[in-house]
Amino acid sequence: MRWAAGLAVMMGLLLSATPPRAQTLTFGNNATVTSIDPHFYTATPIIEVTREIFDGLTGMRADGSIGPALAESWEPVAPDIWEFRLRPGVTFQDGTPFTADDVAFTIERVPNVPNSPGSLVIFTASIARVEVVSPLVVRLHTRGPDPLVPANLAWVGMLSRRIHEGATTTGFNEGRLAIGTGPYRLVSFTPGERVELARNETYWGPPPHWARAVNRTIRNAAARSAALLSGDVDVINGVPTADLARLRADPRITVEETVGLRIVYLHLDSLRERTPFATGPGGEALASNPLRDLRVRRALSLAIDRGALAERVMEGSAMPSAQVVRDGLSGFVPGLVPAHDPAASRRLLAEAGFPGGFRLTLHGPNDRYPNDARVLQAIGQMWQRVGVQTVVDAQPWTTYSARQGRQEFTASLMGGTAVTSEASYPLRSILNLRDAARANRRYDNPAFEAVLDEAGRTPDPAAREPLLRRAVRMAMEDVAIAPLYIQKATFAARRGLAFAPRVDEMLSISAVRPAP
Hints:
Shape: globular
Distance between the termini: 40 Å
Mean pLDDT: 93
Structural class: alpha+beta
């Protein structure tokens, strides 16, 4: 691309044309980076790259805890006001100072990014206005108490009013506006294929070890492992479960793993009167959408053997789950465990008027989550056993995600992440409760939303916890979604590299160092 070549020439002042291999880290990524605009989409691969270029006020550590970033400290100064004190001396990569006015500009921009398939407004929606107290002090006035403001702002890359006023996503993707305060600066971006970064020599924090970093999209799982073993890349994510034993045994490779925050689940269309991919057992049109009936949704959920998915299909790289967060996170409901009962599933189908079952198409990606196509096939077989004639349609993520975003499917496989290390975020994002107009919501239960909203207004963690648990239980008992399992975040790297596996499944290139 012409702009990428031009930007690469400019970067020649900072980098040699062919930097030594030892100064370049190459990451084989299982996901596709589709934009460099830090506010365009909540998708993991975009945030994974843009957080190297654009810092947040706060930052999420590898274990999911929140620490300082562009803000040195913060505190609630009133029930509905958070005060953040900014780090002095920080500049954007072109030398522009970072100030409190840039915080105000950033929060103004987030809800106004055109054509966003997944807006970051979920992280800023509670902020009613921004008060600039001084160049290094900003107060965020919220719509009632919001204890998650510091955690939410770890996901919002800060921009400059001077640089980014009127900025478009195209401008970021072309590189002209990809100017942040982060440890790396953009060299070039080939959408869906490759991102090249160079060390920001004026970075306010500890400088990253690597002068240059490359993020390569390698969707095929076997190809990622092969690239690591051949030395074409230094580290990979989404390690294929079939290769784990071999990689662990290879003295040239280290494997790092932690239980993550991502829930893989099924979305079941329970809102529309008619749904496109459900018919009668003979293929005849149905008078109404069968998934609107709670008994049918429960039947589909009970037919799934989550233990088998986690242990056999995922080969131990997942934990079966019946809720949106794992044990140890706020909102986890003790005793809410996965149930597998095919007999009860058949009985519920008969009670709902489908003694002979019905036909259903199950859609999902075939290159986004580890073993996603195999998981789809396994679920299809489990549904077949209770009388639901299932066709599995697995598609490339680029095609599938666009169609899923338009809610074209009846039953579909997706993943959601508890990025704030508690239950309210996945509930709101997965069910699309951020859509105030309700036009694109995936679940409609005012009683549930009232409890969730009350939890969001409750700053005391001890008082908030039972509300979150109640909201989780309500949504799960109503089968708002059908949770399947919590993924483990697994990385493999050439021996000699040191980094902590992150619960958000992202690789922090700037945190990778040579092993001591």
